[in-house]
Amino acid sequence: MADLRVDVERADAVMIGGGIASATLAALLSELEPTWDIRVLEKLDTAGQESSEGWNNAGTGHSALCEMNYTPQDVDGSVSPAKAITINEQFQISRQFWAHLVENDRIGDPSEFIHAVPHMSFVHGMENVDYLRRRHEALTSNPLFDRMEFTTEHAQLAEWAPLVAEGRPVTETIAATRSTDGTDIDFGALTRQMLGFATRTGTTVSTGSEVVDLRRMGTDWGVMVRSTADGSISVVRTPFVFVGAGGYALTLLQKSGIDEIRGFGGFPISGQWLRCTDPETIARHDAKVYGKAAVGAPPMSVPHLDTRYVGGKRSLMFGPYAGWSPKFLKAGRYTDLLESMKPSNITQMMAVAPPNLDLMVYLGSQLAATHQQRFEALLEYMPAARASDWEEVTAGQRVQVIAPDKAKHGVLQFGTQLVTAADGSIGGMLGASPGASTSTSIMLGLLEKMFPQRIEAWRPSLTQMVPSWGRSLSEHPDEAHRLLDHTAEALGLTHS
Predict the structure, then answer these.
(1) What region, left, alpha or beta, does residue 231 occupy, with left being phi > 0 and alpha being psi -120 to 50 degrees?
(2) Backbone angles phi, psi at 156, to 5 degrees
(3) Is the bond leading into 169 cis (omega within 30 degrees of zero)?
(4) Which residues form a coiled coil (predicted)?
(5) Distance CA 184, CA 9 (A)
(6) Mean pLDDT, each 10-residue run in order, the chain (496 residues)
(7) Under CATH, which number does the domain 7-490 receive?
């Protein structure tokens, strides 16, 4: 039998997955090392079509302005702002990098991917109103949140979000906060703009290229790629690999065999939106209105009534409603979950079930919900909604991280986690929200871990691109306000 010949190419760095994380890293490296041969490998025919695609995520620009799950309440009633502040700081880093790209003509019209949309939190009932008041007090002492407004007045709610107020009894106890620093982001459009910039500086973006294996080749990695068009196999040899393949990142890191991925597992969650079809209703709402999550609900299922801009078109959505599929990507396989279960992580995956029974109950109730029951959930946020004005749309697929834990064997995490090899040759991003919004901060952290010998030489360029990198804006109120205003102007964030 004739020997199978496989073409082997050489690259300075390879990004697996054509989403927002890989695009951010490619854009950063294109600025820092414009002579490098960088490859981005994407399985689908177009970049930014999985988790980064507009209708596959909330597009919120997660900055903790409205997401109440980032400000937990303690048993004594106090509200901790620490996580919210951290996430907002990380989002400001993303805004600064995007502003840099726009101001230096790296990418085009920012209105193709970002719009100013006020962020609101809305609750009803005495206990929840008290919580929101405490949340507002805890956050507004910080310069990143001090423009946030609070109200318990129906008239003010009607001004901020008429669809939420319309048809609501004036005797109902309600509260809301509002921040005009909020944004809506089409991460798919942003991904393609950043990859376009990287391509112009020499990066090769190969779509229809599925990575099927990762193997050590001396001090390098061999990235085995299969063409989805003709099935041909090729290998890219590189000293640096980033795995930004959404839910499939777990599987690829397992294939790499690095010790650092041992014990990690994943729990997939899917979902759906209700999308408004009535132009007049869409035009009357200009806000992202977040409520409180149901008991056991994952963060990606926090209900919200949102103004969206996807593909340049203004829309209105509500949801998401949680679902379940064993796939790790929307374009994945039904065997993904089973194939991810290994001797090194089975104990951890089994250990997370008992402490998360409320999640299982919640998912079961969501799967059993009828269309009418889903519509009734919308009525809680929009009492005057008409069922005929809403259609169902499938949301993205997420894989929540199951992380090894010495005390509990395994812990289900709702967030994003960076996993890197000890030698700095390979790293990957696991998890979900708020990964897209904080991708610049995550990729800067990756550069520090993967390129410790280069980071100091890069630091002047990086701080020019991202002025607050490595420093806390919370401790510098004047700079925080200046950068908020500067990035808003650079990105064209003006309210209608």
Answers:
(1) left
(2) -70, -40
(3) no
(4) none
(5) 40
(6) 70 97 97 97 95 89 91 91 96 97 97 97 95 97 97 98 96 97 96 97 96 95 96 96 94 95 91 94 97 68 90 93 89 92 89 80 80 89 95 90 82 86 95 87 96 96 96 95 97 79
(7) 3.50.50.60
In DSSP terms, 14 is beta-bridged to: 39, 241
Rg (CA), the chain: 23
The identity of residue 330, as a single letter, is K
Asked if 232 and 64 touch (Cβ cutoff 8 Å), the reply is no
Distance of alpha carbon 219 from alpha carbon 335, whole angstroms: 32
CB under 8 Å to 76, separation ≥6 — which residues?
A: none
Using alpha carbons, list the distances in angstroms from residue 87 to 143, 300, 395, 421, 458: 14, 15, 23, 25, 24
Instruction: Judge if the upstream peptide bond of residue 434 is cis by omega within 30 degrees of 0.
Output: yes
Give the CA diameter of the chain. Answer: 82
Question: Which residues face 199 on adjacent strands?
Answer: none
> Which residues on neighbouring strands pair with residue 316, listed in sequence order?
307
Length of the chain: 496
φ, ψ of residue 124 in degrees (nearest 5): -140, 155
Q: What sections of 341-476 are H helices per DSSP?
A: 346-351, 357-368, 371-379, 439-450, 455-465
Cα dihedral 127, 131, 133, 135, rounded to 10, equals: -170
What is the Cα–Cα distance from 85 to 72, expressed in whole angstroms?
Answer: 13
Burial (CB count within 10 angstroms: exposed 0-12, middle 13-18, buried 19+), residue 91: buried
Burial pattern 257-295, b for ≥16 Cβ within 10 A else e, equals ebeebebbbbbbbbbbbbbbeeeebbeebbbbbbbbbee
Residues paired with 400 in a beta bridge:
267
C-beta of residue 147 within 8 angstroms of C-beta of residue 153: no
Q: In this structure, what are the phi and psi dihedrals at residue 416, rounded to the nearest 5 degrees?
A: -120, 140
Residues facing residue 150 across a β-bridge: 177
Residues 462/43, Cβ–Cβ less than 8 Å: no
Domain ranges of the chain: 7-490
Identify whether the C-beta of residue 288 lies closer than 8 Å to the C-beta of residue 66.
Answer: yes
**Which residue matches tokens 């969206």?**
308
* CA–CA distance, 465 with 98 (Å, rounded to integer): 9
How many whole angstroms from its chain centre is CA 245? 13
The string of DSSP letters for 158-175 reads HHH-HHHHTT--TTS-EE
Residue 74 CA to residue 344 CA, distance in Å, equals 35
Who's near 479: CB < 8 A, 6+ residues apart? 467, 468, 473
Q: What is the reported pLDDT for 463?
A: 97
